[in-house]
């Protein structure tokens, strides 16, 4: 069970001085009175240098000066002991957007990946936006057609980085109409929680405590498939519409959270 919090962002986060989400990440990385030292991983992007510059400037605008690039764009780099030692010196790691399959194919199963998992268990804060959000889960959505009705073939899935094993995550959710993708993923993996994150919206996940909290401007859509009563997911043809009954769906804005053990949402004003 990971001890370090995860900050999972739906993409398109505000990068100005008033950015609530980036400020929350810096706050988490500064816990215990230490000065935050943040590494930015741009593996998902083919424009990694430009992405790092953009985030370095954004973090500097909110007062964080110790920002370093963790450039891993080849499998050989992910096995490099030197970059793993640099990772060990961070109080927070931020994964940028792009293509989540680039992250898992470059980093998955590597020394860098194992170091990241071990450090998260020891308290390292890990954040990710867009592709950096999708890669957090063990079952990862790679791609899918948001325009069609949900079918078995609506989403293509692969193994993610496994920081949160009990979920499957989609991003740019409402903006790109991805509810069908998430329903298809949950139909095929009903035990895990489907999480759809809108842009400029994030969840802070604390697995050790069993809670998540919503931050940002829009909403988080959560699909719970444990109570599914009937589904044709196993016997349907690839492009045949899915049947799903008994699915539980929650839409949570800022100020709401969820108990991950009971899967019950709550207002942050409620008594837990």
Short synopsis of the structure:
The protein has one domain: Rossmann fold.
Describe this structure in words.
It is a single chain. With 272 residues, the protein is of the alpha/beta class. The protein has a single domain, classed as Rossmann fold, CATH 3.40.50. Helix content is 25%, strand content 28%. The protein has eight helices and 17 strands. The strands form four sheets. Strands 3-2-4-5-1-10-11-16-17 form a nine-stranded mixed sheet, sandwiched between helices. Strands 8-9-12-15 form a four-stranded mixed sheet, with helices on one face. The longest helix has 14 residues, at 48-61. The mean pLDDT is 92.
Largest sheet: spatial strand order: 3-2-4-5-1-10-11-16-17
CATH class: Alpha Beta
Q: Give a short account of the largest sheet.
A: 9 strands, mixed
Helix content: 25-40%
**Overall pLDDT level:** 92
Order of helices and strands: EHEHEHHEHHEHEEEHEEEEEEEEE
Number of domains: 1
Number of helices: 8
Rg, alpha carbons: 18 Å
CATH topology: Rossmann fold
Find the count of extended strands (DSSP E, 2+ residues). Answer: 17
Question: How much of the residues is beta strand, in percent?
Answer: 25-35%
**Low-pLDDT segments, ≥5 res:** none
The CATH superfamily is known as Class I glutamine amidotransferase (GATase) domain
Shape: globular
Report, as a whole number of angstroms, the end-to-end distance.
21 Å
Key features?
272 residues; alpha/beta; Rossmann fold; 9-stranded mixed sheet; 4-stranded mixed sheet; 8 helices
Helix-strand layout with pairing:
Blueprint: E1 6-9, H1 20-29, E2 38-41, H2 48-61, E3 67-70, H3 75-78, H4 81-88, E4 92-95, H5 100-107, H6 111-121, E5 125-129, H7 131-134, E6 139-144, E7 155-159, E8 167-170, H8 179-188, E9 193-197, E10 201-206, E11 211-216, E12 219-224, E13 230-231, E14 244-245, E15 248-253, E16 256-259, E17 264-267
Parallel strand pairs: 1-5, 2-3, 2-4, 4-5, 8-9
Antiparallel strand pairs: 1-10, 6-7, 9-12, 10-11, 11-16, 12-15, 13-14, 16-17
Helix pairs in contact: 4-6
């Amino acid at each position: 069970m990971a001890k370090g919090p995860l900050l999972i962002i739906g993409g398109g986060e505000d990068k100005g001085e008033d950015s609530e989400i980036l400020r929350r990440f810096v706050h988490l990385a500064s816990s215990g009175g230490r000065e935050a030292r943040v590494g930015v991983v741009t593996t998902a992007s083919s424009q990694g240098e430009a992405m790092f510059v953009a985030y370095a400037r954004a973090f500097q605008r909110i007062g964080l000066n110790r920002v370093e690039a963790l450039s891993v764009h080849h499998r050989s780099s992910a096995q490099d002991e030197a970059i793993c030692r640099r990772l060990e010196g961070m109080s927070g790691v931020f994964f940028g957007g792009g293509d989540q399959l680039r992250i898992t194919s470059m980093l998955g199963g590597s020394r860098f990946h194992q170091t990241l998992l071990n450090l998260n268990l020891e308290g390292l804060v890990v954040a990710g936006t867009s592709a950096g959000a999708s890669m957090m889960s063990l079952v990862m959505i790679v791609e899918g057609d948001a325009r069609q009705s949900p079918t078995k073939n609506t989403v293509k899935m692969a193994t993610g980085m496994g920081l949160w094993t009990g979920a499957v995550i989609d991003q740019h959710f409402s903006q790109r109409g991805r509810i069908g993708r998430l329903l298809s993923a949950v139909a095929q993996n009903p035990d895990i929680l489907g999480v759809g994150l809108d842009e400029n919206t994030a969840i802070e996940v604390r697995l050790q405590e069993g809670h998540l909290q919503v931050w940002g401007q829009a909403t988080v859509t959560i699909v719970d498939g444990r109570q599914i009563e009937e589904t044709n997911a196993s016997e349907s043809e690839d492009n045949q519409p899915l049947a799903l009954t008994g699915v539980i769906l929650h839409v949570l804005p800022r100020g709401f959270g969820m108990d991950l053990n009971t899967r019950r949402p709550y207002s942050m004003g409620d008594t837990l």
